[in-house]
Amino acid sequence: MDSGIALVTGAAGGIGEEVVRTLAERGLTVAAVDRHAEVLGETVAKLRAEGLSVQAFACDVTVSAQVDSLVDTVERVLGPVQYLVNAAGVLRVGQAVSLSDDDWAATFAVNATGVFFVSRAVVARMVDRRSGAVVTVASNAAGTPRTGMAAYAASKAATAMFTKCLGLEVARYGIRCNVVAPGSTATPMLTSLWTDGGADGSGERGSIDGIADEFRVGIPLGKLARPRDVAQAVAFLLSDHASHITLHDLTVDGGAALGV
Ligand code: NAD
C-alpha cells in the first residue's frame, strides 16, 4: 500500500483526519470527504502543509445524488479509488424511550445509510476493476449494549453487518471489506459526552474506570484510545499485510468490551 487513491469520509477531524494522515504518510493520495466544508478545508490545508497528498471534497454522505457525483468527481480528478474508509458518524445520546424521531433518523442516515450510499458507489467501480479494500469504522457499542446509546449502537450494528454482507458478495472479485470497532477514543465525539466538557477530568475517569450505574466496566488497559490507535488498525486492514482478512471486525478498545 505505497501508492494509489483512498477515499475517507468524516475526514474533517477526529479519527477520520488521523486515518487520512496515516494513509497519506504511507504514500497514498487521499480524497478527504466531509460535510463541513470549512473545517475540512482547514484540516486539508494542515495536512498538505505536512507534505501529504490530500485533496478536500465536501459532501453530505446522507444524500445519495451528492455521493454519486462525489465519487464521479474523485475518480475524474484523482483516479480510481482503491481504498475506502467509512469514518463519518454522528452520536445522539438519550434513553431509548426519550429519543425523538429525528434522533433516530439522523443517526441512521449518517451511520448506516451513508455507509451504504458511499460503499455502493465506490465498490461498484471496484468490482469492475476486480480490486479494492473497504473499512467501515463502527463501534464496540455495536456488540455491547450501552445505556443512552440505543440509536447509535443499533446504527453501528447495522453498518457493521452491511459491511460484512457486502464483503461476502464481492470476495469473489478479490475485494476485502472489514470493520474496525473503536471504544472510547479521544475526539470531539467523545468529549461531547462529558458533561463538564472534559474540564475537571471526571468524564475521562468515568470512561477509564467504568460506571457501575451505567453497567460500564471501564477500560482494562487504563487509557483512552488516541485517533492514531484506530487509524493504524484501519491502515493494517487496508494493506497487503491483511490480504487474507475479510468480513472481520477488529475491536480497538483497550479491552472495554472484554473481548466480545
Ligand atoms: P467526530 O465527531 O470527531 O468526527 C466525525 C466526522 O464525521 C465529523 O468531521 C463530521 O463532520 C463528519 N460527518 C458527520 N456527518 C456527516 C455527513 N452526513 N457527511 C459527511 N461527513 C459527516 O467523531 P470521531 O470520534 O472522529 O468518529 C469517527 C468515527 O468513529 C465515527 O463513525 C464514530 O461513530 C466512530 N467511533 C468513535 C468513537 C469515539 O469514542 N470517538 C468510538 C467508537 C466509534
Could you provide a short overview of the structure?
It contains eight helices and seven strands; from the N terminus they run βαβαβαβαβαβαααβ. The protein is α/β, with parallel strands linked by helices. The chain folds into two domains: 5-183 and 225-251, 3-Layer(aba) Sandwich (Rossmann fold); 189-224, no CATH class.
Task: Describe what you observe in this structure.
With 260 residues, this protein is of the alpha/beta class. The protein has two domains: 5-183 and 225-251, Rossmann fold, CATH 3.40.50; 189-224, no CATH class. Helix content is 43%, strand content 15%. The protein contains eight helices and seven strands. The protein has helices spanning 14-25, 37-49, 64-77, 101-129, 150-170, 188-191, 202-209, 227-238, and strands at 5-9, 29-34, 54-58, 81-86, 132-137, 175-182, 249-252. The protein has a seven-stranded parallel beta sheet, with helices on both faces. The longest helix has 29 residues, at 101-129. The two termini are 30 Å apart. It binds nicotinamide-adenine-dinucleotide. Nicotinamide-adenine-dinucleotide binds next to α1, α4 and α6. Nicotinamide-adenine-dinucleotide is lined by residues 9-10, 12-16, 34-36, 60-62, 87-90, 110, 114, 137, 139, 182, 184-185, 187-190.
